Amino acid sequence: xxxxxxxxxxxxxxxxxxxxxxxxxxxxxxxxxxxxxxxxVWGPPTYPATFVDxxxxxxxxxxYFMTSPEGEKFAGFWDITEVDGPSSFSFDDGFADLxxxxxxxxxxxxxxxxFTEHDGGTRATYVxxxxxxxxxxxxxxxxxxxxxxxxxxxxxxxxA
Length: 160
What we know:
Elements (H helix, E strand, L loop, with lengths): L2 E7 L4 E8 L3 H9 L1 H4 L10 E5 L7 E7 L5 E12 L3 E9 L12 E10 L2 E9 L3 H9 L2 H9 L2 H5 L1
Antiparallel strand pairs: 1-2, 2-8, 3-4, 4-5, 5-6, 6-7, 7-8
């Protein structure tokens, strides 16, 4: 299992997930840069993602939806804020309606994904920051840790 550590810090309003992959940094980067590859690992296996728009450049918005086993769709977006490929990128991750309009009633996480060489492969560190303890708790209650863990654990099969 790639996920090696999960920490949520209510004082700093962060959720940090660390995963190790048996693939070079450039290969892990490719997954996040390419929408078709990203679809295979963004979201748990029972809620596959479909990216409608994806361009990993600052100032762009990626839009996607996840589909439940019952066929219900849940939309989201990434507002890309910084890119330093292949080592990191930052984005605001939010919930949206099916027309990809942001849902102001739902939390928006500020995310930093970092990829570094580690033991012949890649250590990926995923940090999501929230503006309030309530927002952090809300995404934790929604199963973000479990969903991200299931999603990240799919990467090994993709890079094998």
